[in-house]
Amino acid sequence: MKLKGIHHIAIIAADYQASKQFYTELLGFEIVQEVYREARDSYKLDLALDGLYQIELFSFPDFRPRASWPEAAGLRHLAFAVDDVEAWISYLRSKQVKVQDVRIDEYSGKKFTFFEDPSGQPLELYER
Length: 128
Prior knowledge:
By secondary structure, the protein is of the alpha/beta class.
């Protein structure tokens, strides 16, 4: 048996509309499909990056807040590969997103930084 890769990452949004705008307009994800699931009073938004399905964004009326940041049990953070971390930091800050300063991975020597989505989900930008 062999895994073929990661199919998608599911994120529950505290503010669905703000998160939808954040992931599509700010980060550039494309909407594959959006459905409203009446039985769960929940939206499900499928997002792709360069045509590759990557994120399921959910709304739930009874979500629970994240325990702590970023050391809560479970998904610690979601990292995106970028070509220029510093350019992304400038871009995000121009959109009023709080972004940490550039850090250097002590093992790879690569640049990275952290920020968060509207729900407080820790996100990372890691230079390829």
